[in-house]
Amino acid sequence: MRSQHDPAVAASNVTLNFEGVPIQASEGETVATALLASGEKVTGTRAVSGRARGPYCLIGICHECLVEIDDNSNRRACLTTVRQDMRVRRQTALRRLMTGNRTNGP
Amino acid sequence: MNSSTPQNPDVLIVGGGVVGTSIGYGLAVDGARVGILDGEDSDFSASRGNFGMISISNKGFNNIPYYRLSFVSSRLWPEFASTLRERTGIDPAFDLRGKIYLSVGDAEFAAHADKVAEYGRRLGAGYSHDILDRADLQQMLGNVGLGERVVGGSFSPLDGLAEPLRLHSCLMTAIQQSRGWILRDHRVSQIRYQGGVFTLVGPWGAFSAPRLVIAAGLGTPDLASQVGISVNVRPLRGQMMVTEGVEHSFPYPISGLLRQNPEGTIMIGVSTEEVGYNDRTSVEILQVLAMKAVERLPALRSVQINRCWAALRPRTDDGYPVYEESSEHPGAFVVTCHSGITLAALHNHLLPEWILGGPKDPLLEPFGLGRFKNALPA
């Protein structure tokens, strides 16, 4: 929850969608802080063990904050700036290598 | 007695990389009290450059005993991995399903096929490596598409993998479970010997033991000379990259170039360069590695590289391992090799007995330092 002293409160002018739910964010902040501020600590699960994951280092190194943004996997929430109507989902599986239904090639 | 303070052990090991810990684990499980002194994060740790490959099919072209050494280690690996997993609860993600080689272009394929055939002639029965055409390879690799210039390759069932970080975790945990200890930031500056006891000294203090193993990679020559062993190693730089995690895409490691970890990250590497004591990465080499990867599996083009790094690996004068006991100071041993992962199971199984005073296994005999005295000058 945002502190009443947080200057960002004045500019909560971006709405993004997390798992189908609208979340308020401030222009210029990252997806990670927007999620944490709205009370979401679990932003994904490990594909292999099923363990919960959430933003940790907040500087793009630990890769614990991986989310799907507008259908793109492996996006680091802590390095992605919020954008109006951005669709964010928890990442629960490994990124697909091949796109579409093609079985050969990129 | 405070059980959390490391005590003087039965065997002191200098070097906590994959070689030192494989040996330490074997000794600890045999009931010896083991103490490992490891260096600092800034040291040139050869194990940092390991790729997790158990490589047999490309060993021993000019040295049949080395093939034998490697092959025996691969046969010991399954039990080594399973008992490590049972003891520690950590899965080293060992797999011995084989390796695929992919050749790009006709000339490379022809040269590769010739080499594989010659391997077969030199090593005979027990060497298994089959040339495959593009269609066979595509079938083995499943959905991931082959680059259009991949004309053929081969498959050897002899090879395998283990996950580098997990293997090291396993070994360190297993040693500590058997009341061994491992101390980081304990670089050894001096070795003294008196009355059958080796004392290792550093700014941190000293530890003593009747038996000593020096498995300190590039730090080995200096320490070995203090116990009367003259061994030479040169640094060989290896650069590599690790990618973002993606779905499991190729079921075999490829060409010594590509492997995929359990978490989905893909490792691409490793170069071999003689650049002295320089463990930096270079864009030129990383580009070459990346090109080789996408020539073989074009789907990798879209994959992000998360990290790249380099490590210096110790190369002996002829590139083959050294297993030597000091004649001046019996009880002091030097172990150095390039393929610490491949040989981990063998080191764990064969070296403890020798280190504790037993016979030196015949497999190790060709790798004493005597071979350098007999060699012709370069």
Q: Give the CA-based shape of chain B.
A: globular
If helices are DSSP runs of H or I spanning 4 or more residues, what is the number of helices of chain A?
1
Low-confidence stretches of chain B: none
Largest interface, counted by CB within 8 Å of the partner chain's CB: A-B, 16 and 20 residues
Summing up helix and strand content along with how strands pair, one would put the structural category of chain A as: mainly beta
**In what order do the strands lie side by side in the largest sheet of chain A?**
2-1-7-5-6
Q: What does the average pLDDT of chain B come to?
A: 95
H/E series of chain B = EHEEHEHEHEEHEEEEEHEEEHEEEHH
Pairing-aware structural class of the strands and helices of chain B? alpha+beta
Largest beta sheet of chain B, briefly?
6 strands, mixed
Average pLDDT value of chain A? 86
- Radius of gyration of chain A, Cα only, in angstroms? 15 Å
Instruction: Give the termini separation of chain B.
Output: 55 Å
The termini of chain A sit apart by 43 Å
Computed Rg of chain B: 21 Å
Helix content of chain A: under 10%
Strand content of chain B: 15-25%
Give a description of the structure.
- The complex is a heterodimer of chains A (106) and B (378).
- With 106 residues, chain A is mainly β.
- Chain A has one helix at 31-37; strands at 14-18, 21-25, 44-45, 52-53, 66-69, 72-76, 87-90.
- In chain A, strands 2-1-7-5-6 form a five-stranded mixed beta sheet, with helices on one face. Chain A has a two-stranded antiparallel ribbon with strand order 3-4.
- Chain A is globular.
- Chain A starts with 13 loop residues before the first strand and ends in a 16-residue tail after the last strand.
- Chain B has helices at 18-29, 64-88, 106-123, 134-141, 164-177, 220-225, 283-296, 344-355, 370-374; strands at residues 11-14, 34-37, 53-54, 99-104, 130-133, 150-156, 160-161, 181-183, 190-194, 197-202, 205-209, 211-214, 233-245, 258-260, 265-269, 305-316, 322-325, 332-336.
- In chain B, β14 and β15 form a beta hairpin.
- With 378 residues, chain B is of the alpha+beta class.
- Helices cover 30% and strands 25% of the residues of chain B.
- Chain B has nine helices and 18 strands.
- Classes of the chains: A mainly beta (106), B alpha+beta (378).
- The A-B interface holds A 46-48, 63, 74, 93-99, 103-106 and B 143-145, 244-249, 262-264, 298-304, 306.
